[in-house]
Amino acid sequence: MALGRPLFTLPLPLLALALLLPHLASSQESCPADCMTFYDGCNTCGCQDGQLTHCTEMFCEDDELGEAKCTTWTFTSAKDCSTCIDKGGLWNDQDGKCLKECPASAECVSDISDCAEGPPSGGRPSLDDCPRACPTVWKPVCGSDGKTYSNKCALTTARQCDKTGKLKTLAIIDPTGPCEDYSVSSVRDGESAEEGNGSDAVTLGPQEVHIATEGEPEEPGVHSPVVEEGEGE
């Protein structure tokens, strides 16, 4: 028995739409494409229950490894802000919350025309207190804690918090590569770190320290320990 023709057929555009509908419905339940989970120095922020959450991050310079610039960022949309105001609320852009009354310490939006996506245009936090999100570029450096960091920005991020939540300072032992050739005798700032090849220990200060190998040119602004012949004998 020959198979009969289908009772009806869909034009190609409608067929394509029908195939896409399940995918579109499922994508609305997941985090948007621009929702990135990142490490801010102490806390991990990103998606929760399919929604963007409030985070603070620090951006690196355009060259990815330059001095980082701080800015606060609230992952909320203009729609959330306008919906809040339509309902008679006040939008706290710092916390991403709709409030009945605005605290004296906060700046709230009461006019829909002031609702805007992206980071607020206000002041920047202190560089020492500002967490940061670094690029994923691989230009490894060796830190004074004996760990290899993917780049200088990542090492500077790591200094934001230790396990107790207090700030710590890391120095760069080798800005040209990973830590495989180095061993560290102490990770505390101001104490010594020993080079893996058996050379004399050097004292690490709050600034970057580069231990140059023999014949290696030093980078501008980075100083290697110099031991004069006969010194210390």
Automatic annotation (TrEMBL):
Q: Which InterPro entries match?
A: Kazal_dom (IPR002350), Kazal_dom_sf (IPR036058)
One Pfam family of this protein, by short name?
Kazal_1
Q: Any keyword DNA damage? A: no
**Superkingdom field:** Eukaryota
Q: Where is the Kazal-like domain?
A: 124-181
Gene3D superfamilies (alphabetical): 3.30.60.30
**UniProt region (Disordered), positions on chain:** 181-233
Q: Where is the signal peptide?
A: 1-27
- Alphabetically list the UniProt keywords: Signal
Q: What is this protein called?
A: Kazal-like domain-containing protein
Q: Which organism is it from?
A: Vitrella brassicaformis
